[in-house]
Write a structure and sequence with these properties.
Blueprint lengths: L12 E2 L4 H13 L16 H7 L5 E6 L5 H6 L8 E9 L4 E2 L4 H10 L2 E8 L5 E8 L4 H4 L2 H21 L1
Parallel strand pairs: 2-3
Antiparallel strand pairs: 1-4, 3-6, 5-6
Length: about 170
């Protein structure tokens, strides 16, 4: 019998008094042999705006964000490059375990003000968390981008990204 490895990470502070945190901790302890389930480490963060510029990426079909309470910060880090994203797919946690500095309505209003429209919403099982997909209404793939050129760029981007992952 093998036990699954359960992991989660976040860039925001955790509310250790939250009932959701207490339930999650019990579940993690049940599945893990590790005594110390939570730790803090320093990391370097790169904005998406810089990442896209450095990698010469001028179009993203789907941006999937899963940063456990840091999603809005990731979206805002796009700056003006938000205009080159066709779909943004993210989660929003409504429980009080993660001390976020924003609300869902702030994310929604920001996206709407930047030309996005909510096209999908789904509640995740056993959690006060929803998944959302927003579509950039300013992008019409057939008019804005040369399909062949975009395909070639996607292939180049995928290849470059795969090479960078292999180095890790």
């Amino acid at each position: 019998m093998s036990l699954m490895k359960v992991q989660s990470s976040t860039l925001v502070k955790i509310n250790y008094k939250s009932n959701y945190f207490k339930r999650k901790q019990k579940l993690l302890k049940f599945f893990s042999k590790e005594k110390n389930l939570f730790f803090t480490t320093k990391i370097n963060i790169k904005s998406l705006d810089n990442f896209l510029k450095e990698n010469k990426i001028d179009y993203v079909e789907i941006l999937k964000i899963d940063t456990e309470g840091y999603d809005f910060n990731v979206i805002k880090s796009l700056g003006d490059r938000i205009n080159c994203i066709n779909y943004i797919y993210f989660e929003h946690h409504f429980h009080d375990m993660l001390n976020k500095d924003y609300t869902y309505m702030q994310v929604h209003n920001f996206l709407v003000n930047n030309g996005f429209k909510k096209t999908f919403k789904s509640k995740m099982f056993y959690r006060k968390t929803f998944e959302y997909i927003y579509k950039n209404t300013n992008i019409n793939i057939n008019e804005e981008f040369d399909i062949n050129n975009t395909h070639e760029k996607r292939s180049r981007i995928t290849s470059n990204f795969s090479k960078r992952i292999e180095k890790l």
